[in-house]
Specification:
Blueprint: H1 3-18, H2 22-25, E1 29-37, E2 42-45, H3 47-55, E3 61-71, E4 74-83, E5 86-97, E6 100-109
Parallel strand pairs: 1-6
Antiparallel strand pairs: 1-2, 3-4, 4-5, 5-6
């Protein structure tokens, strides 16, 4: 699978995620895919279980992709995931095998205020709307 085809598949995946189209969202995964959430220590095995875990999640979710980078079998998406309007910054690392995601790891972080101790060293940029 060439890089352009993977990028299109990822865009389709994230657009479906934002639209809560669970069937299209999970077409990108192999049947035996593994999803890891290191911060909670959870591992979900299998496309069906990954899809079900997201379907039963009660919050209203919105996805805003900031960028997608990658090549070959390794792709990273930086995005903002809002649960009930509260943004969390996230990174998804996807490893492809035979054109589908075999492994995904997602990391999440909440926004925070700039530290005054480094104010003289930084340039503040406007935060993107979430």
């Amino acid at each position: 699978m060439d890089d352009r085809t993977v990028r299109v598949a990822l865009e389709r995946h994230w657009n479906a995620s934002d639209a809560n189209d669970f069937n299209v969202e999970h077409e990108i995964y192999r049947d035996d895919a593994v999803l890891d959430y290191p911060q909670s220590g959870e591992r979900i095995r299998g496309r069906y279980n990954i899809q079900e875990s997201r379907f039963v999640q009660p919050n209203k979710k919105r996805f805003t992709v900031r960028r997608i980078v990658g090549s070959g079998d390794l792709w990273v998406t930086e995005f903002v995931l809002s649960y009930d309007g509260i943004p969390s910054y996230a990174v998804s690392i996807m490893e492809f095998r035979d054109g589908l995601v075999a492994n995904e790891t997602q990391y999440f972080a909440d926004r925070f205020d700039p530290a005054s101790s480094r104010a003289h060293l930084v340039e503040l940029v406007a935060r993107r709307p979430d």
